[in-house]
Structure formats: structure tokens, C-alpha cells
Design a protein that fits this description.
Elements (H helix, E strand, L loop, with lengths): L5 H30 L1 H17 L5 H7 L3 E2 L6 H14 L6 E5 L6 E6 L2 E7 H6 L2 H16 L2 H28 L1 H6 L7 H36 L2 H22 L18 H12 L25 E2 L2 E2 L2
Helix pairs in contact: 1-2, 1-7, 1-9, 4-6, 6-9, 6-10, 7-9, 9-11, 10-11
Organism: Azospirillum picis
Subcellular location: Cell membrane
EC number: 3.4.24.-
Length: 313
């Protein structure tokens, strides 16, 4: 069962709490600047009620959006066995369901909460990784589920979207009142336009920082589950090479495209791999052989393209 040491757990919770508190403060200031104090209270109360009644986007909606298909034990027995073992080690009350996404883009993600969750893997991921690497990726997603990261990120996403909407509405109101402002019939404090303009950017940066914190922690907990830091590190390096090559083929064939570290939803792969290598000394040797995965489905040959919800189809 996942039981991080008290100090690490405390630091992680404080860091996440400070980031969420910062986002909440910006959201309050931005919404109250547009709607006033009373309406802001109603918006906050409604948002809290909605998050309590429905902690995240319904799992079935996301699965349907990505055309995910349930992987039964007969189709992918070793995948089902790995996920069941990792869920048991993590102490999840309910084993996550395993879903297959027919896309050649290698990726994996989790949806739901510990009581009702699913791990989705693409065809490209299954063809790219060996069994040891796949175990590391599954452990990373199970760690997200066990830590309730999906709910935390959903809260951050809701606040970010509300602030973005309030910012656009506020800027539109200011634009419509420009004649009154020029005539001196209305006065707007100088900090209000600055708040409306920059609050979405600040929210995005805090949301990215929160995501990076949770990713590092999920890597750490994945190693606790598998006892094999090298498997996850190898998977990350493979994914970096493959996805990097895909984007280069579209935009700049033959060249690497630099991406600002600050604007990445995940930490740089090099940083994640370096941390995993630091943990490798304390991890036990892998018990799973490095061999290809055996999945009873035909390979997806078409190249990834844009879908409504991302580059998957």
C-alpha cells in the first residue's frame, strides 16, 4: 500500500494547498471585480456544491470522447493482471478498468476516482513499450488515482476556466464603456484592467506548477509500487523520442523544437528521468522480463491526427 514518509507527504500537501489557495485568491479577485461580492459568493457556492456532487467529469463521457474500448482479460491478460496487482499494492478499494484507445499516438491517462476509475492506453503505447516499461507507466497512472490527483486537477481546471470566462466578460464590459471612461462619466480603478488581463495567465502558470508537482509525486509512488525506477525511466525516454519525432514531422522535419519548460503541463522528461535514476539505487531489480507485450488486437496503422479532445485519432 502507498505510504510515503510523513515529511514528504507534508511538503507535498502544503505545496499543493498553497498553489490551490493562490488560484482561489486570483479567482475571487477576478470574479468579484466583474460580478461584485454577492454574485461571487453565489458562484463560489455553486462551484463547491458541483465539485462535491460530481468531483470530476463523468468517466463515461471522457471514455466515449476518446472512443475507448474495454480491454477484457482474454484480449490482454498480462495487462489486466499487471493492473490488478498494482491496484492491490496501492490499496485501491476498487480495481481500475483497463481501456484501449485506437490511436497510434503513444499515451496513457487515468480517469475517475479510487472508488470508480479507469486507465486508458493507446495502441501506440502498447506497440512501443515492453512489459517492464508498461508496468512503470501503469504504476504511474495508479499512483495518480490513489492520490486523488484527478480530483485536485479538476478543481484547478474549473477555477482556471471560470477566471478565463470572467476575464473575457470583464474586458468586454470595459470595452463597451470606453466612451463613458473617456468622457469622465465613469471611473475604473487602475488595477482592474491589469487583473482582468493577466489573471488567466497567472492561473495557467499556477495550474501548470500544480500539475508538475503531482507528476513528480506520481513518479515517486510508481517506483514504490513496482520497485523498478529503471522501467519507468526507460518508458519516459521512449515516449519522449517517439512523440518528439511526431511533432517534428508535422512542423519542422529533421529538427528538435525547443519548448519552454515553464509552459509544459508535465515536467521535462530529462528532469523526471534524473529523479528516477536517483531512486534507482534504492529500488529492487525488476522482476518482470523485458519482452514485448502480447495484445490480441490488430495494430492501428493510421497516423495520429487532431480530434475534438486532443491528438489521439
Amino acid at each position: 500500500m502507498l505510504r510515503p514518509d510523513f515529511r514528504h507527504r507534508l511538503v507535498n500537501h502544503i505545496q499543493s494547498l498553497l498553489l490551490i489557495a493562490g488560484m482561489a485568491a486570483i479567482a475571487w479577485l477576478c470574479i468579484s471585480a466583474v460580478a461584485g461580492g454577492m454574485l461571487t459568493l453565489l458562484v463560489v457556492a455553486g462551484a463547491i456544491l458541483g465539485l462535491l456532487l460530481a468531483p470530476g467529469m463523468p468517466k463515461r463521457v471522457l471514455l466515449s470522447a476518446y472512443h475507448a474500448q474495454r480491454l477484457r482479460g482474454a484480449e490482454f491478460p498480462e495487462g489486466a493482471a499487471l493492473l490488478a496487482e498494482l491496484a492491490q499494492r496501492a490499496g485501491l478499494p476498487q480495481r481500475p478498468e483497463l481501456y484501449y484507445i485506437p490511436s497510434s499516438m503513444p499515451n496513457a491517462f487515468a480517469v475517475g476516482d479510487p472508488e470508480d476509475s479507469a486507465v486508458c492506453v493507446t495502441d501506440g503505447l502498447l506497440r512501443l513499450l515492453d512489459r517492464r516499461e508498461f508496468a512503470g507507466v501503469l504504476a504511474h497512472e495508479v499512483a495518480h488515482i490513489a492520490a486523488r490527483d484527478l480530483w485536485i486537477m479538476a478543481v484547478a481546471d474549473v477555477m482556471s476556466r471560470v477566471v478565463s470566462l470572467a476575464s473575457w466578460v470583464g474586458q468586454l464590459i470595459l470595452l463597451l464603456n470606453v466612451p463613458l471612461l473617456l468622457a469622465g462619466a465613469a471611473v475604473v480603478p487602475w488595477h482592474v484592467p491589469l487583473l482582468l488581463i493577466f489573471s488567466p495567465t497567472l492561473m495557467s502558470l499556477l495550474q501548470l506548477a500544480l500539475s508538475r508537482t503531482r507528476e513528480f509525486d506520481a513518479d515517486r509512488n510508481a517506483v514504490r509500487l513496482t520497485g523498478d525506477a529503471g522501467g519507468l525511466a526507460s518508458a519516459l525516454m521512449k515516449l519522449e523520442r517517439r512523440t518528439g519525432r511526431f511533432w517534428e514531422d508535422i512542423f519542422l522535419p529533421g529538427r528538435r523544437i525547443p519548448e519552454p519548460s515553464l509552459l509544459r503541463t508535465h515536467p521535462p522528461t530529462e528532469a523526471r528521468v534524473a529523479r528516477l535514476r536517483d531512486l534507482a539505487g534504492a529500488s529492487t531489480p525488476p522482476r518482470r522480463p523485458a519482452r514485448p507485450l502480447d495484445i490480441h488486437r490488430p495494430a492501428v496503422l493510421r497516423r495520429p491526427g487532431y480530434g475534438r479532445y486532443g491528438v489521439y485519432r
